[in-house]
Design brief:
The structure holds 2 protein chains of 2 kinds. Chain A is an alpha/beta fold. Chain A has helices at residues 77-83, 103-106, 121-131, 153-157, 177-183, 197-209; strands spanning 5-14, 19-25, 40-43, 54-62, 67-73, 90-97, 110-116, 138-145, 161-166, 173-174, 190-194, 213-217, 233-235, 247-249, 256-258. Chain B has helices at residues 85-96, 112-121, 150-163, 179-188, 227-240, 254-263, 280-294, and strands spanning 13-15, 18-20, 24-26, 48-50, 67-70, 73-76, 102-107, 129-133, 168-171, 193-196, 200-203, 205-206, 211-212, 218-222, 245-248, 267-270. Chain B is globular, with a radius of gyration of 18 Å. Chain B has an 8-stranded parallel β-sheet with strand order 3-16-15-10-9-8-7-4. In chain B, strands 5-6-14-11 form a 4-stranded antiparallel β-sheet, with no helix packed on it. Chain B has a two-stranded antiparallel sheet with strand order 1-2. Chain B is 27% helix and 19% strand. The chains are: A alpha/beta, B alpha/beta.
């Protein structure tokens, strides 16, 4: 039977005043064989007044050390509490959850990774797994930030070609990730994206326009994280397999969807 | 004391002629149809799985956001998304029948006819009991409209009882002035048992965005913060009727479950806290058993209503 995992915090630090990097180590016997980029876990604050785990996407998986790295924005009291855990602390975790990016569909392809804001972190593990053993033919990451505080940029630089866009124009292309894609005339076979909904809408439209396949990672308020409560659904083009309506569960059928399959407006 | 001399207490409870191996159930809507939590809990260890509400046809539910956390609890406005009775019977019920646990199907509808259609469809199905959801605060038509007026509750209970092959539990809403009056109306309509409480209507506003957090504006509140209200209502309802009461509302531990039973519940259901601890149902069952051993109580049913009245 599965249960919550009692992880140990091995590293916790702020990358910017509001972005936290948290690394958790598995107890030896509980480590998974495989972690897919785009998967997430539910992290518990340990404060009983906050009963729901916080769904946070995996930024990096260290197979050797059995460590998961999470990079998240402090958006409320839950994420603030998570950022307060220091090295040596125990933290309960539910998961690994969700489907992750379809690695088999990315093999041998030229892949464009688009990460916007707090959608940047999951792109790091994706870049790592896609460049490992030459799984993908070519990997280019385009990272969108509000300003010149380019968190995780150095980590990407070690792995793949990386370009940036900033809303205030202080680094890279002024504008969003698609502005950078256009500015550099980037082409690819497949786009993998994670970021705010307006960005994902634009990515979907861009991919459609250019005849590219796009896999996008969606976000929604979640409760159970395992597909039971039906809190985190996204409208879909076809009838979904679970509820036979047109609402797929982001935590279970997602969070990564083929952009053509979801009706995100 | 040697291990041999500890007699295992009798954990079984009987409700409307149905024997449950223990008094721990799942609260409708918090456990899917068991499949999602089957990896975390051995379903054979539960008294019953109470399914998510099922209607006569698939329901898409409400727009998102559908859930929000609040202090000590959460709000939900799922809007009873469900695949409809056909898929339910073929897939979910077939799945549940692999386990040695009772199956209680939660039935929802917009109109009386909707409810009756589902109840009829389940007549010849391997289902142990029906739980009638006349208390969901998140859908515009039906549901709670049948559960907030005694005469409407009496009337729908009576009609469902005529159509049902299985014993009927009426699930009551706490969003009423007098829960005892509602309990009596359901009993008079022929209900075999009551379950309560469903969620309490609540609201959360994002002050930075000055917007409602839930797309539905209001949602049903559940979680540990509502437990004292639920315990009070279970006590009032069980005092008002002779039929058994299944107690729920914020159960987070075996201690909470024992409290509900002492207040008058014959069985209990774990709800929102499944989302906090997916293994909680089985842990509650184990904890109750240990409590009985410690207090040398031979049967769990002795707890029902056993709070001292002075």
């Amino acid at each position: 039977m599965k249960k919550k995992t009692r992880m140990t915090v091995v590293d916790s630090r702020m990358l910017t005043p509001e972005i936290c990097s948290l690394t958790l180590r598995y107890p030896q016997e509980d480590a998974p064989d495989k972690v897919l980029p785009g998967q997430f876990a539910g992290l518990y604050t340990g404060d009983a007044s906050m009963l729901l785990p916080r769904p946070i996407s995996i930024c990096r998986w260290d197979t050797e050390r059995k460590e998961l790295r999470f990079v998240f924005r402090i958006a409320g009291k839950g994420t603030r509490a998570l950022a307060g855990f220091g090295p040596g602390c125990a933290m309960d975790m539910l998961g690994i959850l969700g489907n992750g990016y379809p690695m088999e569909k990315l093999a041998g392809k030229r892949v464009l990774l688009l990460g916007g804001g707090i959608g940047v972190p999951p792109m790091l593990e994706l870049a790592a797994q896609l460049t490992e053993n030459g799984a993908a033919q070519e990997v280019t990451a385009v990272l969108g930030y509000r300003d010149g505080t380019l968190f995780l940029y150095d980590d990407f630089e070690k792995i793949c070609r990386v370009l940036t866009a900033t809303e205030d124009g202080s680094a890279g292309t002024a504008g969003n990730v698609l502005d950078a894609v256009r500015a550099h005339s980037l082409t690819a076979d497949v786009i993998c994206a994670c970021g705010p909904l307006p960005m994902l809408r634009a990515v979907k439209a861009y991919a459609q326009e250019h005849g590219m396949q796009a896999f996008i990672s969606l976000e929604e308020r979640m409760a159970c994280g395992v597909g039971a409560c039906l809190g985190c659904v996204t409208p879909t083009k076809e009838v979904d397999a679970h509820s036979h309506v047109r609402n797929a569960r982001i935590c279970t059928e997602g969070p990564v969807f083929d952009a053509r399959e979801v009706e995100i407006g | 004391m040697s291990a041999d001399s500890v007699k295992r207490p009798d954990m079984s409870v009987r409700i409307a002629g149905v024997c449950f191996k223990n008094p721990v159930m799942t609260a409708s809507g918090t456990f899917g149809s068991g499949m999602e939590y089957g990896e975390f809990v051995d379903l054979n260890r539960l008294g019953a799985v109470v399914t998510k509400g099922v209607a006569n046809v698939p329901w898409p539910g409400n727009p998102t956001p559908r859930v929000a956390e609040v202090y000590g609890g959460m709000l939900n406005a799922i809007g009873l998304q469900n695949p409809g009775i056909d898929v339910f019977i073929e897939r979910d019920l077939a799945f549940l029948k692999q386990f040695d646990t009772k199956v209680i199907v939660n039935v929802c509808g917009r109109t009386e006819e909707d409810y009756l259609e589902v109840v009829e469809r389940l007549r010849d199905q391997p289902v142990d009991m029906l739980e009638i959801n006349v208390s969901c605060p998140n859908v515009k038509e039906g549901a709670i409209a049948f559960g907030q007026k005694p005469d409407a509750l009496f009337s729908i209970t009576e009609k469902i009882k005529k159509a049902a092959a299985q014993p009927v539990i009426m699930k009551l809403t706490p969003n009423v002035t007098d829960i005892a009056e509602m309990a009596r109306a359901a009993e008079a309509g022929g209900a075999d048992a009551l379950s309560l409480i469903n969620t309490i209507t609540g609201m959360k506003i994002d002050i930075e965005k000055r917007r409602f957090v839930l797309a539905n504006k209001t949602g049903g509140m559940s979680g540990p913060a509502i437990k004292p209200i639920a315990v009070r209502m279970v006590w009032q309802a069980s005092q008002a009727v002779k039929i058994p009461v299944i107690g729920m509302g914020g159960i987070a531990s075996w201690e909470d479950a024992v409290e509900f039973m002492l207040a008058g519940a014959s069985a209990v259901a774990v709800g929102a806290m499944n989302f906090n601890n997916p293994c909680l149902t089985a842990e509650v069952a184990e904890g109750i058993e240990n409590y009985l051993i410690r207090h040398r109580i031979s049967s769990v049913s002795e707890l029902t209503g056993a709070v001292a009245d002075a």
